[in-house]
Amino acid sequence: MLQKFALAFKTKTIEFFADDEKEEDDEDKASISAAIDLDPGPEEIITGQRVVVLKPDPLPPPRKPDPETLILALFATISSFRAAYLHLQTAHSPLLPDAVRFADRAAVSHLRRLSDLKDSYFQNPNPSPRQVFSFSSHLQAQVQENQHLLRTFDAVVNRLQSDIDRKDAESAALKRSLWDIEAANSKLAKRLDRACAPPDGKVEALLSIGVFDSVLKDTCRVVHRFTRCLVDLMKRSGWSLDLVANSIYPNVDYAKAGHCPYAILSYIYLGMFRGFDSEGFSREGSDGIGLDGIDVNTRRMNSLTQFIEHSAVDPLELISGSSSCDFAKFCERKYRQLIHPGMESTLCRNSDHGESVWGTLWPSSPLYEPFVNMASSIWTLHKLAWAYDPVVEIFQVAGGTEFSMVYMESIVRGAVTMGSDHGKKSRPKVGFTVVPGFRVGKTVIQSRVYLNGLKEVVQFHV
């Protein structure tokens, strides 16, 4: 029994001490016989002896990890978590399910590792198996931290490379699209050259009523835009639109006060189109159609060429690059006719004109850009009109003329064309022409007029 007890606790030395030194030899023999007997009977009793068992030394209490090693382990674990989380984000775009699962497990394991480090710092009395640290030295912790940083950089590089590849693909697609557009533009340019210079000198294929009407509508939109800008300046400067309208067209019975800007719009239209029926539209004192000594085909080809060339340039760049060209002279002349110095000084007194001269078109003026665009549209329309055979004619209706549905159109939408005069039906009278009309061959493009006494007309029909 003593031998089994000694083997269980891995002891190698058993000493027996006798009370009487004289019986030492006999007791040694008895202890040897008892040790040999591996299974003594229960009736055997050993008396007069002490048994001393040497137990192994107890394990020392767990020590708190070295602070420096713990900090290095903390940094390394944080770096590992950052790398795993970055891999998790990268795996979502494009979506890679296996990579997502792997990165998710890695991130969770690093979070657990951080929890273990916290428990180790506070010396958890019951540490879990995960709390066995793998960092045996400062250098090993630094090596692992650097490895995780390299993984982070690798993920960033992979993402950047993916972005570069995507942008390279987009750039290649845009280059192919640009080549296709340039090829299509080249074909269109060749077709346009053939249309502008046909073998027999005819240009009827390009010139039609629809083309002129489309360019005219674009011109009207630009004129309306300039007029709105001018009216806004008048309002901010304290001008009375009623007084301005009455000074332009007195004794006109407006349907409502909001119709006064139609008089200003008419003033702009008729001023800009003055001299439209002259070949020298840009020159001073050129009135009436001048066809003497001009070959029809030459005139048509020159006008059509100028129409195409001017349509392809920016009017602001043209007038700033060449102040002595015909278009620049046209802009200066029309600006002086419409905006006299006293009017401009009142409207633009708060703007920075610098060293500009009143009555001269200047880039610092708030009217500069809208006016140049308006003048460019009318200039283009004039060149197109003189490419027709016969030349497109322009006309306007005098005030007091009876309304005609053939040549006129009311500029007020929904206005009626019949009124009453002392119980008798009569045609309404024209107050003034707003947009002039045009005659293209045998086709008439109606002028747009404001009807005088429109209020009474509306009351009669209601």
Automatic annotation (TrEMBL):
Gene source species: Elaeis guineensis var. tenera
Pfam families in alphabetical order: DUF641, GIL1_IRKI_C
Residue ranges of every copy of the GIL1/IRKI C-terminal domain listed in the record: 394-450
Gene assigned in the entry: LOC105043593
Domain DUF641 as annotated: residue spans: 68-191
InterPro entries the record matches: DUF641_pln (IPR006943), GIL1-like (IPR040225), GIL1_IRKI_C (IPR056813)
Record's protein name: Protein GRAVITROPIC IN THE LIGHT 1
Annotated GO biological process: negative gravitropism; response to red or far red light
